[in-house]
Amino acid sequence: MATDTAKSGIWTEHVDANGRKFYFNMVHGRSYWELPDELLVQVKRPAIDELRDWDPSFRHERDSEEARRRREEVLLHAAANARATNVAPGMVALQERMAQAAQRKKKETELKQQRATEEKQKSEDATNEYLKMHTDKDTDTTGGKWLVR
């Protein structure tokens, strides 16, 4: 590693998928497996890891065997679903949200149609009542409630 150029910048420590530590220089955008001792003091842990260590409830849960087992079950279930559908787990969630949105839109459309039908029926009832009063000979000839002057 060229320590002259790499000494500047913000260093963060990370762990890869195999559990190995590596160091990332945020200024240069480069990763290194090993760092000289003088640079190790500059290494900062990611903020999320710092917060997890600070929060006592998270630390207790992290140490809990039950919590670890639950996380593994959730991950296995998500992986099995993803394999079964041949899509990424994020895509499954997207498809579920799209299906829910389609159902909401269908319900809204049905409600609009129902309201339109009810309004049409009310309008027809009012018209029929008016016509019935004019054609019915047994009603009051003074005009009743429909008197217009």
UniProtKB/TrEMBL annotation:
Transmembrane segment boundaries: none
Any Pfam family hit: WW
Ranges for region Disordered: 98-149
Basic and acidic residues compositional bias, start-end: 107-140
Taxonomy, superkingdom: Eukaryota
Record domain WW: where: 11-38
Listed PROSITE patterns: WW_DOMAIN_2
InterPro entries cross-referenced by the UniProt entry: WW_dom, WW_dom_sf
CDD domains assigned to the protein according to its UniProt record, in alphabetical order: WW
Database matches in SMART domains: WW
Protein name (Swiss-Prot/TrEMBL): WW domain-containing protein
Annotated organism of origin: Globisporangium ultimum (strain ATCC 200006 / CBS 805.95 / DAOM BR144)
